[in-house]
């Protein structure tokens, strides 16, 4: 992602945050992303939707996004203003859905990040700097194709930009 540092305040959660905790199934009957964002993480942290600011970064433990293959989970986070998710590990389907909708995700083990810490992420290298503690970490770098998909704003936008006939009608 060409010179695009992601910088924001950390919201920290634990392990095994499933897609139902990210956006409860009862809210997934709409295609309105803004409506989803109003209820994001509601059962885990009732104040999250009110306190998250555009550019903030969600930090979690192992197996983030486990559970169903609900595409609304990363969409709700992105629409709420979350600029990236950093976790020790991701459920593979959540990881792929996040990339597909243009939400950057980074796997990072062993980091000491507290709620409210200011983070800066270089998506190209995977460098994550905790500006509050002045600590630098290295997340698993994303493959170049995933970086290109994120730069385009998601998979559909990437395919449109690269002439995929099925999305452009050509």
Report the strand count: 7
* Total discrete domains: 1
What is the CATH homologous superfamily assignment? Aconitase, domain 4
> Could you list the spans in which at least 5 consecutive residues all have pLDDT below 50?
none
CATH architectural type = Alpha-Beta Barrel
Number of helices: 8
The helix content is 25-40%
Q: How would you characterize the largest beta sheet?
A: 7 strands, mixed
Tell me the CATH topology.
Aconitase, domain 4
**Structural class of the helices, strands and pairings?**
alpha/beta
Order of helices and strands: EHHHEHEHEEEEHHH
Q: What's the overall geometry? A: globular
What's the average pLDDT? 92
- Beta-strand content bin: 15-25%
If strands are numbered along the chain, what order do they take across the biggest sheet? 4-3-2-1-5-6-7
State the end-to-end distance: 28 Å
Rg for CA atoms: 15 Å
Which CATH class is shown?
Alpha Beta
Short description:
The chain is built from eight helices and seven strands. It has 170 residues and is α/β, with parallel strands linked by helices.
């Amino acid at each position: 992602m060409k010179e695009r540092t992601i910088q924001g305040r950390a919201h920290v959660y634990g392990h095994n945050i499933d897609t139902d905790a990210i956006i409860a199934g009862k809210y997934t009957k709409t295609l309105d992303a803004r409506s989803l964002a109003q209820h994001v993480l509601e059962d885990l942290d009732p104040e999250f939707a009110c306190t998250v600011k555009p550019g903030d970064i969600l930090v979690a433990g192992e197996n983030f996004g486990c559970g169903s293959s609900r595409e609304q989970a990363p969409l709700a986070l992105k629409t709420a203003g979350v600029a990236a998710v950093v976790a020790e590990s991701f459920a593979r389907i959540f990881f792929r859905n996040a990339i597909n909708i243009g939400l950057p995700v980074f796997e990072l083990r062993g980091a000491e990040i507290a709620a409210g810490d200011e983070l800066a992420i270089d998506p190209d290298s995977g460098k994550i700097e905790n500006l509050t503690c002045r600590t630098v970490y290295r997340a698993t770098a994303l493959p170049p194709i995933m970086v290109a998909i994120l730069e385009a704003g998601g998979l559909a936008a990437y395919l449109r930009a690269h002439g995929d006939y099925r999305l452009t009608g050509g």
